[in-house]
Each structure stands twice: as C-alpha cells, then as structure tokens.
Design goal:
The structure holds 2 protein chains of 2 kinds. Chain A is mostly beta strands. Chain A has 2 domains: about 130 residues, Domain of unknown function DUF4466 (Immunoglobulin-like), CATH 2.60.40; about 170 residues, no CATH class. Chain A has 6 helices and 21 strands. A 5-stranded antiparallel beta sheet of chain A has the order 7-8-3-10-11, with no helix packed on it. A 5-stranded antiparallel beta sheet of chain A has the order 12-21-20-19-17. The longest helix of chain A is centred in the N-terminal third of the chain and has 14 residues. Chain A is elongated and about 85 Å long. By secondary structure, chain B is an alpha+beta fold. Helix content of chain B is about 15%, strand content about 30%. Chain B is built from 1 helix and 7 strands, in the order αβββββββ. In chain B, the strands form 2 sheets. Chain B has a 5-stranded mixed beta sheet, with no helix packed on it. In chain B, a hairpin with a 4-residue loop joins strand 2 and strand 3. The longest helix of chain B is centred in the first third of the chain and has 19 residues. Chain B is elongated, with a radius of gyration of 23 Å. Classes of the chains: A mainly beta, B alpha+beta. The interface between A and B is medium-sized, with 31 and 23 residues.
Chain lengths: ~325, ~140
C-alpha cells in the first residue's frame, strides 16, 4: 500500500518534471506593423535536466523584427528591465518558426517572443505554439490564441492648414487644391479655420470667438450653411461625406495618451450613423478631446479622426486617422 | 382595560388604512400631485459631444407669463443633432415628450406644453433660438 502510494507520487512528479507556460504581453488591437509580445517560460526539475532550446511557431509568418529575444530580463529597483544574454538565435527554414538555443546552463528560463503583424495577417486570426526541449530530448508545448489582427489602417502626424486642407480618407492624407486637381485625388473632408470674434468663446476650444476649427464634407450645401465658410474652394467632385463629432472615444495609437484605450474594428462596424445622428459640417471642434467619425459618400470606408494639436488659435493642426474598409 | 383595547383598534385601523392608500400615478407611472405649479426653470441644448452650446454671455430668458424661452447659443453651432433639455417645476411633464436628438437646423421656434403635477394645468411654451452674432 505504502509502496503503491510512493510509486503514484513518483509517477506524478515525473509527469510534471518538465513544464512550460506562456503569457501574452501585448496591448492593443494588433494592427499591421504593431508587435505582439509573449513571455514563454519552461522549467525542468532541478538536477534532473536542463532546458536546451526554445521554439515558437506562428500560423502566419511575422514581419521584420519577429523572433525570440535572446535576452532574459530581470527588473531592477527602478522597475526597469535589465537584459542578460542567455541564448543564440538558430536560423529556421520555415518562415513561421523562430528558434533559440540556450547558451547558459539552466533548468528554468523565460524568454520573450515578438511577432510583428504582417500585411498578410490583416483581418485574420493568428495562433502560436511554443516548444521547449530539454537535454533528454523531451519536448513540451504551449498553445496561444487565436488572436484576431485588426482590419484597420492608421496614419499619424498628418499636417493640415487653411491651404493644405483637402483630406482624403482613401489615401489617409491631406492635399492642397492644386494637388487635388493635378493628382485627381478623392476629397472626403475639407478642413477650415475661421476665427469669428463673438462675445463668448466656445468652451474647451481655447480660442476667441466662433467657428474656429471646422470640418465639412466637400459639397456646396455644407459650405453654404455658414457665410464665413462660403469662400471655401470646392474640389471638382462633390462628395456628401457623413461626419459625426463625438466625445468619449479615444485611441492610444493616435493620441499617445498611454491610457491603452483603442478604437476597435467592432466600434467601426457597430457605428450607426442613422441612429447616432450625423451632419455634413462640424464647427467649433474641440481638439485633443473630441473626435470625428467619418463615413465616405460611397459607404466604402469609415474613418476615425483625432486632432493632436492642443486647443488654441491658429489654423495649423496635426491629426491622425484610422480607416476601416467596409 | 377597555381603554387599551380601543387604542389597539385605533392603531390597527390606521395601519390598515395607510396600507390601502396608493399614490395616484399617470399612464407613465409618474406621480400625480396636488400641485398646480406649471413652469420651465431652465432650458439648454446639448450638442453631439454632450456639452451645452449655451452662450456664455447672453443668459437664457424664460418668461413664465408669456410662456416663452429665448435661448442664445454660440455662433456657428451646427444644430443637426441637438438634444433639448428642460428643467421643469416639481412633478411637471412635457407634451410632446423628448425622445432623442432633434434636427433643429431650420432654427424655427418650437412649442412644448408643460403639464402641471396635478395634470390640471397645461401651459404651452415657445422656444426661440438666437444665434450669437459676430462682433463688428
């Protein structure tokens, strides 16, 4: 009886002699170009064996920068990661696989793995398998995922002014009038800055008077609504873009606030312009606080716009845009 | 003994009476009071970003005798999706009800009827919108 117990106990411990576990360290919605990060830990019972290599296989080959980090990290008193080289990268014929061989004698190790989201993974699911081998040839593995990679396109740091004011959602860029005409560009939104002195200034805009930063769809109907905007030069093709100003939507990629809030694919898909209400003109736009939801006239794209320039006078703005192909 | 007995009966009677008493409510489940007071305390328009567009200089004028509201809003505000918000006297209600955002871009006066808490008094208010004008 006692012997049976011992045997049972021994068997159990040998089962768990070599184990592994994995942790997803990534933030965000996995947009193309962003990296996903994992920490993969493996351990053999001390004095029984040692870990010799670690391998990661993704279902889709990652972009430049993908691979197992050859450093192990510890955290110092200031909370910073202190690296120490513990492994060397081993080339793999399979583009989806990355492998590292340990150069230190250890029975337990945690290595980091980075996977840079490639264009091929846009709007697709990706999953990962991590393997660890010990000196006796045993292999343990750990599955992660599937994770969904975002469908969105994103551009930051677009500069606009009263002359460079024709915004194209398709190109996620801003043009001057001449560039629009010569390059035959699609214009979905026009930006205009007008300072109209009034007795009171709009709260939060930080500037004197009315109107200030305005966004409108490129139609005669939109610019005709307010007399100060009637001198805006319309592009050759009029497009009745839907614009909706909104508060309480943030995106970490564009505003860089480190709040880790994101405009997700689901937000774009669920946006109901009819129910939420939309317009062809946004005036007194409060920068760095409100955002604009856009739907192009042909319904092909939806976009989300955020102006990084803090509230204040002047027509120069820097903005970022996310686009979702419907 | 008799005294105590009658006291108990009185207490029981009051308890049962108050148990039967129900507050009068209307078809919306709102309290119908005995108060005939019927007027607007405050009026504001809220923009799509949930902020009022009220002018910070021109105060809203509510005339409870002629039943008008003169509301001043910031120059250049787009009134495509605004949410009208009334503060009413106790237990009053509005007819028609405000169910959501309205497109008020025609800037024409609109009328709402305020119904008193007693539901006996009805007063129709007219809301006039005034856009703040640019300085010359």
């Amino acid at each position: 009886m006692l012997l049976a117990l011992f045997l049972g106990a021994c068997q159990k411990s040998s089962e768990q002699e070599f184990r592994c576990d994995c942790l997803d360290r990534s933030w965000g919605i996995h947009m193309v170009g962003e990296e996903m990060s994992f920490a993969f830990a493996s351990a053999v019972t001390s004095r029984v064996g040692k870990v010799v290599s670690v391998k990661a296989v993704a279902s889709i080959a990652g972009d430049e920068g993908t691979g197992i980090d050859i450093n192990a990290y510890r955290t110092n008193e200031s909370g910073e990661d202190v690296p120490r080289v513990v492994a060397k990268t081993v080339g793999q014929s399979d583009p989806c696989a990355s492998k590292a061989e340990l150069v230190v004698d250890t029975c337990a190790i945690t290595l980091r793995y980075k996977w840079v989201v490639p264009e091929a993974a846009r709007d697709k699911d990706v999953s990962f398998t991590f393997y660890a081998s010990d000196d006796k040839g045993r292999v343990v593995s750990c599955n992660m995922g599937p994770y969904h990679c975002s469908r969105q396109y994103c551009t930051t740091g677009i500069q606009a002014s009263n002359t460079r004011c024709y915004i194209s959602v398709e190109d996620m860029a801003v043009y001057t009038y001449d560039e629009v005409v010569s390059g035959n560009k699609t214009v979905d939104v026009i930006y205009a800055y007008r300072e109209v002195p009034t007795d009171s200034s709009p709260s939060g805009s930080g500037s004197v008077g009315g109107l200030n930063k305005c966004f409108m769809s490129p139609t005669a109907a939109a610019i005709g609504r307010i007399k100060e905007l009637s001198n805006v030069k319309l592009p050759p093709v009029e497009r009745n873009t839907k614009l909706r100003e909104s508060a309480h939507a943030k995106d970490n990629v564009i505003e860089q606030s480190k709040w880790h809030l994101y405009v997700t694919d689901q937000d774009f898909a669920a946006m109901d312009f009819e129910r939420a209400g939309y317009s062809n003109l946004v005036t007194n736009f409060v920068t760095a606080y409100n955002c604009i939801w856009i739907e192009t006239a042909d319904g092909k794209y939806r976009a989300w716009m955020w102006v990084n320039t803090p509230a204040g006078g002047g027509d120069a703005i820097t903005f970022g845009m996310k686009r979702y192909n419907m | 003994m008799k005294k105590i007995f009658s006291l108990i009966i009185i207490v029981l009677a009051t308890a049962s009476l108050s148990g039967c008493f129900k507050y009068a409510v209307d078809e919306d489940g709102l309290l119908i009071s005995q108060d005939d007071g019927c007027y607007v305390l405050k009026f504001e328009l809220y923009d799509v970003d949930q902020k009022p567009i009220t002018s910070s200089v021109h105060a809203t004028v509510i005339d409870t005798l002629s039943c008008t509201v003169d509301y001043y809003y910031m120059y250049g505000t787009v009134l495509d999706n605004v949410y009208p918000r009334f503060n009413l006297y106790y237990n009053c209600k509005l007819d028609p009800k405000i169910t959501g955002r309205v497109n008020w871009s025609d800037k024409a006066p609109r009328r709402w009827t305020v119904v008193s808490g007693s539901r006996r008094v009805r007063k129709t208010y007219t809301v006039y919108l005034h856009e703040e004008q640019p300085l010359e």
